[in-house]
Amino acid sequence: MAIQDQELSVFRAIGKNDKKAIESVYSENYTLIQNFVVNNNGTEDDARDIFQEAMIVLYEKAKQQDFELTCQIRTYLYSVCRRLWLKKLQYARRIESRVENFDKVVSVEEDLEDHEKLSLQYQNMRTSMGKIGEPCKSLIEAYYVHQKNMHEIAGFFGYTNADNAKNQKYKCLVRLKKLFFAQYKNG
Q1: Rounded to an integer, what distance in angstroms lies between the CA atom of residue 102 and that of residue 98?
Q2: Residues 78-132: pLDDT tens digits?
Q3: How far apart are CA 56 and CA 29, in angstroms?
Q4: Gap between the Cα atoms of 90 and 108, Å rounded
Q5: What residues contact 50, with CB distance under 8 A and at least 6 apart?
Q6: How do the domains of the chain map onto residue ranges?
Q7: At 135, is the secondary structure helix, strand, or coil?
């Protein structure tokens, strides 16, 4: 099942008041919103309130037959929470800005667009990593994820020295880059 199909399935389940779907969305997304609110002059109580309001918006949208979800649930919730929080800050006069200039100061659309592009790029990278095969996948993960140095990688993969491991890593990165950009052009 594709990620988009999973997202739509969870979204529809929320509209049917499926407790498991609601709890999973809550557990997967609350920390992101809490960090956003706390890092922008808010408290944990503010974050809970904002997130709860956003969940209600999500629930109401999920119940509407004609509403079409065009992004990940995480992206949608982030956008709603961001708007709600910035409006609350504006109302409370914690930031000084005129209402008519508000969108010019904080461009939510650009931020959401950047977030969606980055999310798509991560998804494409995961797909590309799945297609690259072994030993390239393990070698790239050893270096970038597990932060092993070239001497450790050479020993683990059986290369004669660190330079050979480095050359193999370069070849794997070239392959990954080709897969990623082929995926990116098609996506």
Answers
A1: 6
A2: 989 999 988 888 777 644 544 445 555 555 566 677 777 777 777 777 788 888 8
A3: 14
A4: 14
A5: 33, 37, 42, 81, 84, 85, 88
A6: 1-108, 128-187
A7: coil
Contact assessment for residue 74 and residue 29, using Cβ atoms and an 8 Å cutoff: yes
Q: Domain 1-108 has what CATH class?
A: mainly alpha
Owner of token pair 């491991």: 165
With beta carbons less than 8 A apart as the criterion, state whether 181 and 128 touch.
no
Q: Please compute, for residue 28, the number of CA atoms within 13 A of its CA located in the half-sphere on the CB side.
A: 13
Return d(Cα 121, Cα 8) in angstroms, integer. Answer: 20
Query: Are the beta carbons of 73 and 7 closer than 8 angstroms?
Result: yes
Name the 3-class secondary structure at 7: helix
**Residue 128 CB partners (closer than 8 Å, separation 6+):** 176, 179, 180, 183
